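Hi there,

I know you've been waiting on this one. I reran it after we fixed the sequence typo, so this is the corrected version. Both the input and the resulting structure follow.
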Amino acid sequence: MSASVSGLYIAITAIMAVYLTLRVIKLRRKFSIGIGVAGNEPLRLADRVHGNLLENAPIAMGLLLVAELNGLPALYIHIIGIVWLLARVLHAVGLTQGKGGYHFGRFWGVLTTWLVILTLSVVNVVYFAVS
């Protein structure tokens, strides 16, 4: 069985991770900070945006891949993948623009990320139960 649809969203997530890494590197160079954040707020926010993606992506993308391998139709994989990407963009923009405080994008980005993870968890448990 092919995993090309989930592979698409895993690849886009990887590209997003590289982009966010480059943002952190750019700020490290700009402010001459080799490790940590040295109290630099823009770097702290960029580091947390990047870190939050890396904390959530492995479980979400692993669950997406397993759901596709278990036979979840491509349409649903696409819907979940698109929702995942929108959630991560919302979170990145919201955390950055909200400067660490409340922001619509941060709130809904995290909430939607959790919804994707929980949905995929239930999908995979159901596939296990019926197999």
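Quick highlight: Helices lie at 4-31, 41-70, 74-97, 104-130.

Best,
R. S.
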